[in-house]
UniProtKB/TrEMBL annotation:
Domain (Large ribosomal subunit protein eL14): residue spans on this chain: 46-120
Database matches in PANTHER family: 60S RIBOSOMAL PROTEIN L14, LARGE RIBOSOMAL SUBUNIT PROTEIN EL14
Gene: LOC100742009
Organism of origin: Bombus impatiens (Bumblebee)
Keyword Ribonucleoprotein carried by entry: yes
Protein name: Large ribosomal subunit protein eL14
Domain KOW as annotated: residue spans: 10-39
Gene Ontology cellular component list: cytosolic large ribosomal subunit
Length: 149
């Protein structure tokens, strides 16, 4: 089956646009092919309708009765530990890193650039040292083979 993430009741989604951008919500009900009813009890997103093009579906799904109340959704959310599971994903780490980069000042960006330059110099020196060592081993190994014949 090519698709793994379906728009379904209980699917956890990441809001990519609008006033609640960057928050997690659970799909409670499907209104039509473009809109869904969402609720974000843990992320302070009130129950409201959202367009599907404002959401990115995650791999998480929580189980609760069809069109469950906010209290029911909150209980299912906490039982499934969605917040902890989300923090462990690479997606959440990338979002966090992007937020940190946006908050850097000019001086922080300068320090980061200098630190990268130093790291790259150390890495390059180590690489060429290893390359030279391998070349020397190949040359001495080739001459030994010639001598044996």
């Amino acid at each position: 089956m090519p698709f793994q993430r379906f728009v379904e009741s209980g699917r956890v989604a990441y809001v990519s646009d609008g006033p609640y951008k960057g928050k997690l919500v659970a799909i409670v009900d499907i209104i039509d092919q473009n809109r869904v009813l969402v609720d974000g009890p843990a992320s302070n997103v009130p129950r409201s309708e959202m367009r599907l093009n404002e959401l990115h579906l995650t791999k998480f799904r929580i189980r609760f009765p069809y069109t469950g109340s906010t209290r029911v959704v909150r209980k299912a959310w906490e039982a499934a530990n969605i917040n902890d599971l989300w923090k462990e994903t690479m997606w959440a780490r990338k979002v966090e890193a992007k937020k940190k980069r946006l908050e850097l000042s000019d001086f922080d960006r300068f320090k980061l650039r200098k630190a990268r330059q130093i790291r790259n110099k150390i890495r390059t020196v180590a690489f060429y040292r290893l390359k030279k060592k391998v070349k020397k081993v190949k040359v001495t190994g080739a001459s030994k083979k010639v001598e044996k014949k």
